[in-house]
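Final report, closing paragraph on structural work. Over the funding period we assembled a curated collection of sequence-structure pairs, and we close with a single example.
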Amino acid sequence: MKYFYQFSVILGVSLLGEFLHAILPFPFPASIYGLILMLLFLKTGLIKLNQVKETGDFLIETMPVMFIPPAVGLLTVLEEMKTMALPLVIISAATTVFVMAVTGCTAERILKKTKKSSGKETQA
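Its predicted structure, as stored:
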């Protein structure tokens, strides 16, 4: 019964995300609204982590299985993709480097800001 309750809470937040997607004019997917709502609910204490933890862990563990159908779909168009292999590799490499750089810069800024606000900044 605990898992049913936890899944119901997660599903309810997802449904709220769907509702927001339907009424708000922003171009974000409903899943993003749901994730933002879940974050807000967890941070504000409206939902406690223990109310969703076990089911959330289960859903994260089963996530790789969800990538099997798209991977099989890619196999069906493999011949067409061979002609685009070089551009795909270049784009994938460039975007990977870009995302890593932006993530690193963002993490550094957050760490510096956290150190300044806590007064633990060391003198160099």
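The chain has a mean pLDDT of 91. The longest helix spans residues 85-118. We thank the funder for supporting this effort.
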